[in-house]
Design goal:
heterodimer, A: 325 residues, six-stranded mixed β-sheet, 25% strand, elongated, B: 276 residues, mainly alpha, 75% helix, 0% strand
Chain lengths: 325, 276
Amino acid sequence: MSIPPGLIEARELTKRFGATTAVSRLTFSVEPGRVTGFLGPNGAGKSTTMRLVCGLDRPDGGTATIGGRAYRDLRRPLKTVGALLEAKAVHPGRSARNHLLFLAQTQGIGPRRVEEVLDLVGLGGVAGKRAGGFSLGMGQRLGIAAAMLGDPRVLLLDEPGNGLDPEGIRWVRTFMRDLAAEGRTVFVSSHLMSEMSVLADHLIVIGRGELIADCSTSDFIQRSSEKSVLVRTPDPDHLRELITAAGGTMTETGDPAGTTGGGAAPAFVVTGLDAPRIGEIAASGRIVLHELTPRLASLEEAFMELTAGAVEYTEASRPPGRTPS
Amino acid sequence: MTTVTGPARDVAPARDSWPGILRAEWTKIRSVRSTVWSLVAFVVVAIGFSIVVATVIASVWDKPGNHPNQVQLHTDPTTILYGTGFGFGQLALCVLGVIVISSEYTTGAIRSSLLAVPRRLPMLAAKVLVFAALELVVSAVTVFAVFFSTTAILHGHVVITLGQPGVLRATLGGIGYLVVMGIFAMAIGGLIRHTAGAIAAVIGLVLVVPPLIGLIPGTIANHIHGYMPTVAGQLIGQTAQQPADVLSPWQGFGVFCLWTVVLLAGCAVLLLRRDA
């Protein structure tokens, strides 16, 4: 079976910096024709992973390939892969045009393409200005221009929205969707779940350098926005019996009686039943409730919870229920 | 902001584009101001100091204290003509040599460069070649300008021509020394990767360490001193080997080139091994 030329594959990718393991046995693939979000909190290892894929850092173990080849084996790599990495990559004394020109020359790309990508990102008017005077947003646009220089089939974008104004963010978002619609591979990192939920078709979530989730965005959202209800009762055993009988699940919160002061009853999280139904069940069993609070887990919350615990959680091995917060 | 052009095209031929990589390094070096400023400083300092020295010697020609200069202008004229001006001027080339590579690291531009040339060594090789070519042109013009201006100033007292034994070799050798000096500094810049640290290291090796070693008595210290990179390298700029010299001009130049090649090899190995 031949490997699609736009497929990014990481296999057992590992990178250590001294005693710290930045990326630990990461295995995933990024397919062409869709936007794949690379999610994780700051410091999760997203940038390191992208640098490993691009051959800037050497892995301590495992491999990263693009279309089956290591980045270093690509002879005119900018014609295959366009990368916008998080850290600055431009000499501040050099003009935007000259920055793009030297990159173009290494790939045998003509100067006309430099003007094309400058216009593409809206920097045509400041192309002769030194990049050191650029705002963060203009710098991002220059990075995107460099990534697009070789008209690559694979794009790696590390936090592309950084420093962009809302209009710029909307532009980048549309741009990435268009690129994916053309059949290109778009791999974009972010630490913001909200950003990814509207942009990505597929998500790869990492925390502390380890894979946490690799699934479609809709699947992730559906699972994450599951409702739960916080319940306090002095008679939990009886309530659990009735809730289980009604098809719900009641789990401890780790907040036993008394910790919130004033002798409060222990708190539990109930999933699978909504608050009115739980109230009716309690009433029918003559159980006293001290609190009955519906909780809507936001995507952001779900993401935080996932990454904080760094629990393995993939399509293949899904945990039975969410860990209560 | 328009939309992107058509679908991605196929992978390019599996060869590095050498002319392209060389052209890219030329674009890089010519598009930052530090290049122009360093080269201007080199030319102005080298020519300026040389003319001052020649003028001073000419004006005090018959004073008794000038006797050693008179002798040396007959036995080893190029050391007097080039010594002071290029002794100072070379520092500008050292700084430029360091900056050409260290600024890529301090600004992060190295990431762009290595994304474009991921095998890395072609980039380093092209950088060395382009910088050497630029140095060669600028040094040749400057050295000959110094030769003809200073010999003209001294013409009334002593006639020095390129046809005299050793003078042409010392003049061309001086150009070669300056070119290698810049590459030597570049190699240290690539090893240390921090502009200030690398410049300090180069200046230390050029100006500070050799005279200190020269102070140590004994033949071993004398030999160590003779093999120091710039001490050995500068011998090629002498018209003839002097009694105190450990090495001949060509041997000295060879030792200097060897130092540079070893440092450059270290730079290449680390470039391949280190994370960018």
